[in-house]
Every structure is written in structure tokens, then in C-alpha cells.
Amino acid sequence: MRHINVALFVPHNGCPNQCSFCNQRAISGHRNQVEPSDVDKAVQIALENPESKGGEIAFFGGSFTAIERETMVSLLSAAYRYVENGSFKGIRISTRPDAVDEEICRILKTYGVTAVELGAQSLDDRVLMLNKRGHTADDIVKATKLLQKNGFETGLQMMTGLYGSTDEDSIETARKIIGLNPDTVRIYPTVVLENTELCELYRKGEYHPQGVEEAAELCAELLQMFEEAKIKVIRTGLHSGGDVEGEFVAGAYHPAFKEICESKIYLRKVTELIRANKIPEGKIEIRVSPKAVSQMTGQKKANIEALKKLGYEAKITADESIEKYKVYILRNESL
Q1: What is the pLDDT of residue 29?
Q2: SS3 sequence of the chain
Q3: For 57-66, 134-143, 255-264, 292-301, which range has the lowest pLDDT when averaged over its residues?
Q4: What is the dihedral of CA 51, 57, 61, 64, to 10 degrees?
């Protein structure tokens, strides 16, 4: 059963750094500090939907454990009431790797926090420094292990295409994340937003962002890596909403970015099978999971057209027995 989470965005005021890419106002659409009364209002609205029961109350969009301590505790206290009465199963927060220590873990456990996501972004110290993250790769490793030791569901967020980054160091970051064995991962290709240092670098010609297609090729590879490691990817691509569209300047932003990535995975799987099995040109039937039919087809039938250029007229069929990212090809002249 799908559960609805209550998401509250905590502004940038908890963060000690101004990262090169960051414009939290545009991403979240919020300018003002969240207050306990805002938690109550959001929860009451959510509770009107029966699917909210069993969900989580989530504090995102900043560095939750770095905000002023009294404010943090007041927000946790307001949310914890709804965990104690059984309306929600727990509280999820996101924060910086260098804003986690034993004391923070004790506070979070006291107020019912069950999941913590760390904005890792990269595990390459050079990339972290160039983008003014203000912490090191070692901080990420230490914070992850500390959260896991304290029993939190732990998530790591990574970014691709950052200033000074390459596909190779992004792949290496993914490998290191897999080595840390988090419960979840989010993958965000870099988007250039107004009022950021990255925007200034872009306009001066010092930063060249990846476009959707280039970023999707890389993120498709990362998705497969995490899938093979059995680590759940809960988000791929910056979410729409807030003022992202209004502040967007350049980069890999698309509201259906994950579907584009998955379409590339399926096309790659099919072409690999065709080559490996030396399937002759002509009509073929491609069987995939029912949930993957649109991804195999591609946006605006992009994969169908790509296969046509290779000499294959493809029909996509749903098959309940086929797992995610798996494909089965039949050569069928009767199609």
C-alpha cells in the first residue's frame, strides 16, 4: 500500500556554507522558517487522506541538525506527537554530514526520527572543495557509519555533473556509496539556478553543465549499479515544483528525468542481447515487466525509433514473470 508522507522544507539558515549550486528557495519554494504550527497544519491536511496513515513526517531542504537547537527540537516535538499517537510511523530528516554526532543522534532518537538522509553529493574531496561544500569525504563516511550504528535508516544523496566533476569521479562516488551500504540513495544531476555561484561560473564560460541526454546516460549507469547492489534509489533528478522552472538557467532538468534514464537502460539491455545472440534484423517482440512498458518504448517512442534505425521493428509486450531491468526478445516474423 502506498503511504503519503508530509514534507516540510526547512530553509537554508541552518547551513554554514553556501554551496556553488545551492538556491534552496527555488528548490523548495519556501522563504520563511517552518514553525511548529506549520507542522500541525500540514499534518491535519494530510490526515484527511486515509493513505497518510503509516507514512512519515519529513523535514527536507536544508541542514536540519545544523539549525538553531531550540528550533530543531520544537519542530521534532511537534512532529513526534503524531508518531506517538500512531498517525505516522516516524520522522525523516535530511542534513549535512558534518552536522551529525553522538549528541545529535541521541536527540533524534528521543523524538522519533527513524530515517536520516545525508547530502553527500560527492566522495571526491577535490569536487567537494571546488563546490564549497565545507566538509570532506571522510565526514560523509563517519556520519554514515554513526547513523547506521545508532539504528537509523540511512540515505545518501549524490550529485552528478558538478563543477570540476567528471563521469569517472561520479561513478567512483557511487562505488564508494555502495561500499557504505546505505538503505536508500537519491541521484541529482546538477541544475544551474539563478542566484548561485554556479550560475556566475556558467555565464563566464567557466562551467559547462551536462544536458539532459548526457546526464541521463551517466545516471542510467548509476541506477544499474545501485540496482545490482540492491540499494533502493528513491529519487533520480530534481523534483518539479517550488520555483525550479522559474529559476532554471541550464543543466539536466526534466520532470520525467528518471524515466529517461530507465529508457536508456532498457535500450542498452536490448541492444546488448541483440549483439550477444546475433539476432538478425527484422521483426522482434520485446517482453518486459508491465511497469516497464513505457520505459522500454521510450519517450515519444524514442527506443522504438532507435531500434528501427538498427533494422528492427519492435513490439513491446508486458510479461508479469519478468523482473525490473530484465528483457526477453523473441524473433517473430508473424508480428
Answers
A1: 44
A2: CCCCCEEEECCHHHCCCCCCCCCHHHHHCCCCCCCHHHHHHHHHHHHCCHHHCCCEEEEECCCHHHCCHHHHHHHHHHHHHHHHCCCCCEEEEEECHHHCCHHHHHHHHHCCEEEEEEEEECCCHHHHHHCCCCCCHHHHHHHHHHHHHCCCEEEEEEEECCCCCCHHHHHHHHHHHHHHCCCEEEEEECEEECCCHHHHHHHCCCCCCCCHHHHHHHHHHHHHHHHHCCCEEEEECCCCCCCHHHHEEEECCCCCHHHHHHHHHHHHHHHHHHHHHCCCCEEEEEEECHHHHHHHHCHHHHHHHHHHHCCEEEEEEECCCCCCCCCEEEECCCC
A3: 57-66
A4: -170
Give dist(CA 261, CA 326) in Å, integer: 15
Would you say 261 and 213 are in contact if contact means Cβ atoms under 8 Å apart? no
Q: Are 215 and 170 in contact (CB under 8 A)?
A: no
pTM above 0.85, yes or no: yes
Amino acid at site 262: E
Over residues 289-334, the pLDDT tens digits come to 999 999 999 999 999 999 999 999 999 999 999 999 999 999 765 4
For residues 215 and 165, the answer to whether their CB atoms sit within 8 Å is no
Domains of the chain: 6-255 (3.20.20.70), 261-331 (3.40.1260.20)
The strand pair at 56-60 and 6-9 is best described as parallel
The 10s digit of each residue's pLDDT in 131-144 is 999 999 999 999 99
Chain-centroid distance, C-alpha 173: 14
